[in-house]
Amino acid sequence: MDAQIERIKAWLGTGSINIFGLPMSGKDTVGVQLAEKLGGKFLSSGMIARAMEKSSNQDFTSGGKLMPSNIFYEWVLPYFEKPEIADYSLVLSSIGRWFGEEDQVMHVAKASGHPIRAAVMLQLTEQDVAERWEAAKMLDDRGLRSDDIDPQIFQMRIKEYKEKTIPVLRHYQELGLLVPVKATASREQVLANTIEALAKFSTQPHDFVAKL
To answer: Where are the beta strands (DSSP E) in 75-212?
Structure first.
């Protein structure tokens, strides 16, 4: 794995890897660990949104819907310009989930010296997601977030992903940036799968098109 990490570092530079997936797919878990191994910084649109909602006493996402694009642009995109991350690679957790946002994300990321090099899609079926949700409820390992406890809100998050984020992934696919990763194994194995897939992707020709 060390050789794969070094290969990814050399290819990535100060660029960005954007990780997507259904709820419960492990985006933040994989993202945090990957950033640590790469010596990079981790940014999560969900974490940023929740922190900003709390500090501003506003609520856009508690019902399971994505934040409006204008709020996303105002709250999330300025993070790319923060001086403390200027010299680091970035691992992003679903930055730009609503179709159309990805173009602005790519523009801002490139302008700040963190161009999007790959979009990882953690692959789970809806049945896998349902089973993980039930297990997480029993184990209480997701912090009792309201959008995970309430089944209607959780289903809304899945609906939003299918309607608004899948088209984002199709765009990344068209650009040759999509990297599918099977996410049905343990957290450790999913991280290993992600590293292996990115190491392989870093050697692919630019016209490589992955299956969605």
So the answer is: 90-93, 116-123, 178-182
CA atoms of 80 and 30, how far apart (whole Å):
20
How far is the CA of 111 from the CAs of 81, 107, 118, 131, 202, in angstroms?
Answer: 9, 6, 16, 41, 22
Length of the chain in residues, anyone?
Answer: 212
Report whether pLDDT(54) > 50: yes
Percent of the chain with pLDDT over 70: 91
The whole-angstrom separation of Cα 196 and Cα 203 is 11
Q: What is the pTM (predicted TM-score) of this model?
A: 0.91
> What is the per-residue pLDDT across 4-28, written as a single tens digit (0 to 9) for each?
999 999 999 999 999 999 988 999 9
Buried b (16+ CB within 10 A) or exposed e, 86-124: eebbbbbbbbbbbbebbeebbebbeebbbbbbbbbbbbb
54, with CB counted inside 10 A (0-12, 13-18, 19+), is exposed
> By CB neighbour count within 10 A (0-12 exposed, 13-18 middle, 19+ buried), where does 26 fall?
buried
Instruction: Report phi then psi at 16, rounded to 5.
Output: -120, 145
